[in-house]
Please model this.
Amino acid sequence: MSDAASPNLDILLAGDEVADGHLLACTIDRDMYQPDMASILLANQSDIYSTLQIGGSVEVKVGSGDSIYKGEIVGLEPIYKGGDKSKIMIRAMNKFHRMLRSKKSRTFVDKTDQQILQQVVSDSGLSLEWKHEATISYKHVYQHNLTDMEFLRTRATRIG
Model:
């Protein structure tokens, strides 16, 4: 029988490293069309993780310090069970989730597609890599009751 070593997993919550003894479970889900999500279960004796804030940063590193996940806290779920130690489930998503949250209606006036897309992604805290040379300026573009992601996909389809 071989002794399989587990990888070194480091979790940083709001910049502070979680003690190795507090980590009970960690799952990271990735999907091409959905935000990356992390579920982190920690021992929470003395409620040390109950003071975390929604929107606080989460980073998961493995091995020699390579980051495999970066996101923000979107949910804190304390778990209290009689006769058991208290725990907390931390739910986190990358910033892509902001583009799927709510439908918006807004107008862009005298802007190019690059300027429009730059404004939409920066409102979500993301950055844009522009690879097109087209610089058509539009008098009026309307985002009518669409999430930012639906709007971006519509604009991307129109410019090919």
